[in-house]
Design goal:
The protein is 37% helix and 0% strand. With 86 residues, it is mainly α. The chain has a domain of 27 residues. The radius of gyration is 38 Å and the shape is elongated.
Length: 86
């Protein structure tokens, strides 16, 4: 009965170069995605934000809206009076 059981490890073929390339490429892609997600979640340093603001700009990043000029009115063409011939 013990002769029927084969307890030797199965033969696993050695991975090819392309399989290894794919395997490590997937690992690198996953690490890159995690770094990108962390960069979005973590706030940026304040020194970087201060460099972007201009020194003479007292409003910082706020935009000042200028009042719009008067809205142009649509002119209607005057109707031509028909002259009756007598």
């Amino acid at each position: 009965m013990s002769a029927d059981l084969d307890l030797s490890p199965p033969e696993v073929p050695e991975p090819t170069f392309l399989e290894n390339l794919l395997r490590y490429g997937l690992f690198l892609g996953a690490i890159f995605q995690l770094v990108c997600i962390l960069a979005v979640m973590l706030p940026s340093s304040k020194s970087h934000d201060q460099e972007e603001a201009e020194p003479g700009d007292s409003h910082g990043t706020e935009h000042v809206r200028k009042p719009k000029g008067s809205v142009p009115q649509v002119r209607q063409k005057p109707k031509k009076e028909s002259k009756k011939k007598r």
